[in-house]
Amino acid sequence: MNFKSILSNLSVAIVAQGVSVVLSIVSSLLVPKILGVEEYGYWQLFLYYISYVGFFHLGLNDGVYLIFGGTPRDKIDKRTINSQFWFGFAFQAVFAAVIVIVASTGAFGADRGFVLFWTAVFIVLQNLMSYLGYVFQAMNETKLFSYTTIVERLSFLVPLVMLLITRDTSYKPYVYAYFFSCSVGLVYCIYYARDFFSAGLLPVGDAVREGLGSIRVGIKLTLANTASTLILGVTRSIVDMVWGISAFGQLSFSISIVNFILNFIMQVSMVLFPALRQGNEEELKSFFVNSRDITDLLLPAFYILYFPVVWILGLWLPQYLESFQFFAYLIPVCVFDGKMNVISTTIFKVKRKETLLLVINFVTVGVSALGSFIGAYLLHSAIFAIISAVIAIVGRSSFSELYIARTLGTDRGRALPFEICLTAAFVFLCVQFSAPVAAGIYVVLYGLYAFAFRGRYQELLGKTRGLFQS
């Protein structure tokens, strides 16, 4: 593998997601300050719904990504890519039209109908932008995809600042601003894919055949990705149904912070996939062992940041104190879902084990849904529902890691049991003790953990330095 190329692409991806995270955090701190709890709940409902629009491409985007992954621009079949773009536009427009008709009946109320209408718009808009972004990544042009992210997020900043200055208390203008930024992102992608659009089209029958072929390849990965978002999504939906839009907004505030971090981490996996597709088995083993050990050793330190973050947020948004209780239970998702996305999901895609990934994710959704149902309808406890989802995520990550270690013939790693214990200790400390006491005890525990694995720390640090110097 070309490590210099990977590091270059990774650095741009980190900058892009850094911009995205900063803007997302700013909007998350300022928007709920201006909107009421209910209005903010509908804004979060919109963001929640559009997080599932990726299902409606039915695997087309993922199929193109898997089929053409590692193929450079000068060798990729541009007519086929262009034809499948318009094939995707056609059938997704039908899905969108059906949802618009349903939303227009008034059966869901004015606000939920509005959210559904704009969700339908984003089915077409966001999936077309995603399609071109996946093509860029498949060609290992991840920098271009990262620049798209920067352009899109900065395009959201301009109307956002205007709305914040005018202190608009309705969530609807924020939806319009999101539409504007996504439209700018799509135009940017189209411009840099103009050589594809000028390559011509296949006959309609051939285009449909190619599109269906990509769907057959990608549908399992799409379902797996959708199931992955449903692990927490089913909990959010049950909270909305049982406790209403205000409680949904409280929970969604904490989940939105977690998602910022996960989106940042996911950019790493996007960079790694096309590079690992071109590597050999030994390079894949080396990637697995080193990345697993790095995340095992460093990610538990992330829990320390919880304490100053919650203190600052509590001063700024005291009306969301209930949400911060959820955050203590949710922050382990950053660690274990982050590991899953960077390591396990990437390797499953490289090894073309989408079926296994799908099964793992669906089982995890089932566990999360069962726990959420028990928590909501039998115990009347949102905390129990959240804990169930988090336990399911920890179990998914741990199982996947152990399975990959066995199939690649590598050692299982010694840190995982201690990492899980550290996570349990962190949650227990946050619930049972004041923040200063909990922070002090956890820092000591992590210090002991780091000391126990100091030899591996030094070894990995040496390898990292070697990569940058090579």
Describe the structure concisely.
84% of the residues lie in helices and 0% in strands.
Task: Walk me through what this model shows.
It is found in: Cell membrane. Keywords: Cell membrane, Membrane, Transmembrane, Transmembrane helix. This is Membrane protein involved in the export of O-antigen and teichoic acid. This protein has 470 residues and is mainly alpha-helical. It has one domain. The chain is 84% helix and 0% strand. It is built from 19 helices and no strands. The longest helix is centred in the middle third of the chain and has 40 residues. The chain is globular, with a radius of gyration of 22 Å.
Write the layout of secondary structure elements.
Layout: H1 3-34, H2 37-50, H3 60-68, H4 78-103, H5 110-138, H6 142-166, H7 172-192, H8 194-197, H9 204-243, H10 245-277, H11 281-298, H12 306-316, H13 321-330, H14 332-350, H15 354-378, H16 382-408, H17 416-432, H18 435-452, H19 454-469
Helix pairs in contact: 1-6, 1-10, 2-5, 2-10, 3-5, 3-9, 4-5, 4-9, 5-6, 5-7, 6-7, 9-10, 9-15, 9-16, 10-13, 10-14, 11-14, 11-16, 12-13, 14-16, 15-16, 17-18
